[in-house]
Amino acid sequence: MTRTRLSGLGLLVLIVALVSCTQRGRDEPTPEPDDDDATDDDDFGPDDDDVTRPDDDDFGTDDDDFGTDDDDFGTDDDDFVPPGDVTVIGEYRFEYYIDLQNGIPWCTQVMQFTGSASFGPDLVPDCIPCTGRVDFAQGSFVDVSNPAVDPDHCDPATLQAQGTDYGVRMTDPADYGDFSDVLGLIDSDSLGALGLDMTTGFDTDSTAAGREAEYSQFGLDFTHGGFVNADATSLAGSAGLEQITRPPTPGSGFLAAWDIYLDPTANSYSGPELVGPYAGDAMFVLYLSEGGTADGLYFSFTLTATP
Fold first, then answer.
1. Which of the residues 91, 109, 131, 287 could staple to 13 if both were Cys, CB 3.0 to 4.6 A apart?
2. Checking DSSP bridges between strand 296-306 and strand 86-99, what pairing results, if any?
3. 228 and 189 share a domain?
4. Alpha carbon of 240 to those of 104, 156, 167, 245, 259: distances in Å?
5. How far apart (Å, rounded) are the C-alpha atoms in residues 206 and 281?
């Protein structure tokens, strides 16, 4: 894993982008054509604007907008009723390093969570291109790190004593709270249409096509870019994430932060929503200067979405 350094702010000496990672990539399948460019899929009139039957262009959400679709009247263009809100359960992993530059780990803090995800346009006010969002149930975060059970786990008491308890701080809305706030999602196809390179100033392709190609080398499917609210109270906002990642649109308060992907051997779903198990890798690492055992920190998560 290659990392390039950038100057940071405050306690966080550096934020650095991940230039490459051994957990990346594949080419996303070509999406099915929309039914709006041909005869309609309920076979009830010359097109799907007819008023004889309720269909997906009847002034409501359609099956391509992740809402109520026209499966009631025949085979639609994807033969699948996209999920509405789904339940998510998962865990964040905070990987602390004694020597981040040389990849020497110290311990891993594991924070479990529950929440929900929803899909469609206009769900994240400051992220216009977002096609979905994950909301974390406040109060659901639990530190399940236990070195007596797993020797690779951190001792929560040690982290607290050293002032490096980022698992708690980043999931507490009263503190940094980055990972307890809404997570904006842009699916791979929409990200490609947007033409956004999610990182800046690095010799790496962080477009949807670039991520797909990189993850495909390891038999994985890049599915979404994840965007976090980087206001002044957040860790991302105070430590200079805007130096290395881009907002979805100019002037947005959200910044790219996560590569989200699935393992097709465990999850065959290929739609723009979240269904089944996924994982996320942070686009950045943190160099710490609190003076404790750890000098760096890396983030990842896993979640399972159930309709």
1. 287
2. antiparallel
3. yes
4. 25, 27, 19, 9, 19
5. 13
Look-up of token digits 């509405």: 84
Say what the pTM is: 0.75
N- to C-terminal Cα distance for the chain? Answer: 35
Average pLDDT taken over every residue of the chain: 78
Among candidate residues 90, 129, 91, the one with its CA nearest the CA of residue 227: 129
Q: Which domain holds residue 73?
A: 36-77
CA gap 71, 53 in Å, rounded: 12
Answer yes or no: do 202 and 53 share one domain.
no
Confidence of residue 30 (pLDDT cuts 50, 70, 90): very low
Indicate whether 50 and 128 sit together in one domain. Answer: no
* Whether 255 contacts 209, CB under 8 Å: no
C-alpha separations of 184 from 44, 141, 180, 257, 264 in Å: 37, 19, 12, 10, 23
Rounded-to-integer distance, Cα 167 and Cα 111, Å = 6
Number of domains in the chain: 2
The DSSP secondary-structure symbol of 7 reads: B
Model confidence band, residue 198 (pLDDT cutoffs 50, 70, 90): very high
